Amino acid sequence: MSKTPLPYSAGDISALARSLRAQLANRTEPPSHVEWLNMLAKAVGCRNFQHFRVQPQPQAQAQAQTVEQITAQDPVGVTVGAPPPVDEARLLKVARCFDAVGALLRWPPKRSERDLCLWVLWARIDAGRAMNEGEVNDVLRGANRFGDHVLLRRELCDFGLLDRTRDGRVYRRVERRPPPEALAMIRRLKAAPAAGRASS
């Protein structure tokens, strides 16, 4: 590992604790040093430690902003300062996993593509709302066409985007700032669910 100091900032210590708890929930042994680095990176919205290392520091300080806050500050997709570039080819490929009304048609094979899909699902869960398992299932059933809401619920929890109590009765969205590609994907698909509801 590099000896260069890497500043670490979490916008919401409560969200950080929930994410770490979710990631540690089913472990029987303590994480290794590298696993801790990856878990801490995921808790602030990165895919893993390597992804965290290449993130610009101003973004790390803004991790706790919700999608709603970011959209309100940035309604046309232009942020203050120069945002990191996004992979438009990958965004287009992942967008093809969704239908015309923004429902997920298939579960991508690549982890990086699945992560973007999870962020889109996360954005469709109400911020700050305590939900039971049935309510979460209803949201995820409406958000996919391949019929596996259980897989999606488990993946959201494992990825640290959805938190649940130890007894599994209460679920809450974990408030984190999406990475640039995820934010671009959310914006790209944001109008689709509204259009689908309007026509139904």
Helix % is: 40-55%
The count of strands amounts to 2
Classification by helices and strands: mainly alpha
Beta-strand content: under 5%
| Strand and helix order | HHHHHHHHHEEHH
Instruction: Report the total helices.
Output: 11
Stretches where pLDDT is under 50 for at least 5 consecutive residues are 57-81, 193-200
| N- and C-termini, Cα separation | 53 Å
Radius of gyration: 17 Å
Mean pLDDT: 79
Largest sheet: 2 strands, antiparallel
Per the principal axes of the C-alpha atoms, what is the gross shape?
Answer: globular
Strand order of the largest sheet: 1-2
Pfam families: DUF2087
Domain DUF2087: 104-173
Organism: Azospirillum brasilense
Protein name: DUF2087 domain-containing protein
Explain how this protein is built.
α7 crosses α10 (180-189) and α8 (133-142) packs across α9. This protein has a domain at 64-195. The longest helix is centred in the middle third of the chain and has 13 residues, at 111-123. It has helices at residues 13-24, 33-43, 49-53, 57-61, 67-73, 88-95, 111-123, 133-142, 149-158, 180-189, 191-199, and strands spanning 162-164, 171-173. By secondary structure, the protein is mainly alpha-helical. The chain has a two-stranded antiparallel sheet. The chain has 11 helices and 2 strands. It comes from Azospirillum brasilense.
